[in-house]
Each structure stands twice: as C-alpha cells, then as structure tokens.
Amino acid sequence: MEPSQPWIDITVTTQPGMVVWPGDPPVSLQRVRRIDDGDHANVSHIAMSVHTGTHMDGLNHFVNGAAGIDAMPLEAVVGPARVIAIEDPHSITIAELAPHKLQRAERLLFKTRNSARPWFDEPFWTDYVAIPQETAQYLVDCGVQTVGVDYLSIGRYQGDGVETHQIMLGAGIWVIEGLYLAAVEPGLYEFIALPIKLKDSDGAPCRAILRPLTSQ
Hints:
- This protein is α/β, with parallel strands linked by helices.
- It has helices at residues 94-97, 133-142, 161-170; strands spanning 8-9, 28-33, 43-47, 55-57, 78-85, 107-111, 146-149, 174-177, 187-195, 203-212.
- A seven-stranded mixed β-barrel has the order 4-8-7-6-5-9-10.
C-alpha cells in the first residue's frame, strides 16, 4: 500500500489586522486570563464576523428562511473535490468552465489570480476574481453541490454580487469563501472543510484541507 499524500492546509490564519469585508467588524482576539498573571489557565476571547477569513455561507445568508450553517449536510464538504485553475483575470466564466464538463453533485474549488498573493494580509481588493450571475446559474444548471473560491466572496464587489449569492444559495449550493490555493495544483483531491456548528447562523469559520487523490 502506497503511503498517503500529505494534507494541504488551504485555510487562512485568522488574526487581528487581517482583511475583512468592508463594514464587517475587525477580528479581536484577546487573552482574558493569563497563567503569567496568576490564573490557572490561559483563556482567550474572540469577536468577529462569521464571514471572516476562510468560512462557509449558510443558505440563509442571502435567502431568508433557508437553512443555516448547522443544517449543512456533511456530504457537501467531505469527499472528492476538483480544483480548477481559472485564467481569466476578471471573472469565472462559462466559456472557461464548459470544457471541464462539470458533473452533478461535484465539489469544485476555483483557483484564480487571487491566490497569487497573500490577499488576507493586504487591504481589501475590489477587483478580485469572482463569479458573475450567468456563471452562477450555469453552476446551478450543472447540479454542482459545493463551490469554493479564493477570496472573501463568490460574487463581485460591484455589480451582481447579491444576485450571484441569491442564485447559488437559493439553489442549495454550499459555498466556501476565503480559501488560499497558492500551493495547490489543478486536479482531483480528497477534501474536508468543516464549519463550526452555529445554530441557525448565516455562516461560520471553517478549516479546509486537501490531499491529492492521484499524482498531480
């Protein structure tokens, strides 16, 4: 039996000062008890948006009354996933996806120019590569179950970002945002991305990892 390939962590590190969506609260991580101060244990307090860093959207993020993140089926985020490299510097287009012959119930992660730089340590970009609404509908029509992107939103900052979310979440596609795919080559992977189980939440931080299923 061949040894397993190592896991690749595609999660960004959550920390104070990291980029957040405009208008969202900054990350606060404070030590409230310290062994050095005579306490029996170190204890920290964290405050941030559930859409910070690497995270998942509940379907109710843009669809009122839809399922929260705690209702997400584990099958959406555990199993084979395909990483597809996107060359277009602006958008994830139907023309670029069509040759990949997307399959029903696929888990797809899109690697774009966003991953060429450590975006999480830089000021917010407004020109990140995103999914326009026509591509969102194409993904729905293909029947994919999970989509991951390498910036803080599947939708564009200006334009049809709301519509992209409404189309995909409204169709039950589970969305992972804020991945970092710099060390990942296109191909097929074993995939795990487990969000914190927050009751009825519109999102939650998650830890996302990949391991090659075949030689890349």
